Amino acid sequence: MSKSARRCQIYDTTLRDGAQGEGVSFSLDDKVKIAKALAGMGVDFIEAGYASSSAEDQEVFKKLASMRFGKTKIVAFGSTRKKGVSPESDPGLRAILGTGAKTATIYGKSWTLHVDSVLGTTPEKNLEMISDSVSFLTDEGLDVLFDAEHFFDGYVEDDGYAIKVLESAKDAGASTLVLCDTNGGSFPKHIENVTSDVVSRFGRCVGIHAHNDTECAVANSIAAVHAGAMQVQGTINGYGERVGNANLISLIMGLHKLGFETIGKSKMSGLTELSRYVARVVNEKHNPRLPYVGDRAFAHKAGTHIDAILKLPKAYEHITPELVGNKRRTLASKQAGKAAMLEKAKEYGFKLDAEKLDSLTKLVKELERQGYEFENSDASLYLRMAESLGIYSPPFTVTNYVATDNSNKYQSVGMEVQIGDEVVLTTAESRKGLIDAVRKALDKALAGRFSGVSKIVLEDFRVMDLDTERSTEARVGVWIRSKCGSTTFGTIGVSSNMLRASLDAIEDSKKYGLLLLSGKVGKAR
Ligand SMILES: [Zn+2]
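^ thats the input. predicted complex w/ zinc ion below
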């Protein structure tokens, strides 16, 4: 295959199709920032939004027009003209021109069912709508990509007509014919066969726009590329209509693995941050199970796996995490052996001899038997290990507490905290429950005695019933996620009493946060 045949264009539609996903909305500012990040990544096209839908979208284009994006092209999106209207007087097409974008993508119908029952026109008139809409824009000097909506469904019903649709767009000057699996119901074999047919007729000026309703959007896009398509469309993290679009990050990396050239290898190390950044803007938790860039993409738990990757990462990793800017993690767990413990200790900066390694492995096994799970609470594991090694002594200890629930009106807690030689007594009330009252009482005791302690903030709280091995007594685990400056970390408490478990997790949060503030630990989770 020639070099050009190995080049595949990356077309991002996060700002348009991605924004059509439930719960996703971007402000003007968000859109500009995301466009900048995408351009920095070197994508070929950024579809910045519907040209006609709102004044705000027009504003986005205006703003983007004033910025430089290197080789990345900003695309205005819209549809073919309405029936019975000339292209010149069609508000949608006029709005595309109004954006000032030099590239436009317009969609048109390629499924007779839609032409007939949704659009309510004749097949011939639909072809005219496509043809004169495309030529209207190309005559104005725009590069026009044509999105053939429902192409793969349309091809099944009437392949002759679906091809005619593409012919109309191509003859009118469309540079790229984008085959859309709009309903996302197709599978790779079908996509590959149909794309092959299209490429054999029109050449490689073909793109693929796949939705993920069969969870095959990425596979379908890759199948189209194998069949000769030279452009893939998708969104960061796969946001989009219904269950979403093809995840562009998985596509970029998949194509790279298959030897196709896209954004360039040096840019790929920014993909994890890009994925996290867009999730933050969308205000959605970053999915840890995302391939390549998720928190768990290179997390190893089984002892045998960990033993092997410590010798040879390739043994259980299909790419190196660094390639996408991600990190390898080993999880301390029931399934992990001494090798994992050693790796963890190395991560924490502990020096272990055989004897210490042995005692730490025993300690963790015992804690796990009691129901502790350290996968999401590395900070508690750090504290237990450091304490057991004698290199850490807690700056404070809660020695006693009394909790009173005042008939659901408010809750109060009295607490005794040992800080050095001093015994501090505090009380606190809350209307949000006992756990909140406990947190407040401890905050009061620590405030003024440890500088910066107010910077340690609890972010997330999770309670789970535990199924412990030998214990007959029911136990609960409480996981807390905390933030201190830019670092987030997890702690855990386990007890038969939920308040006690919560207090333990809160205590660990403060203790670890204080270590972070003192600069005594570098990293954490
Ligand atoms: Zn779509």
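The mean pLDDT is 91.
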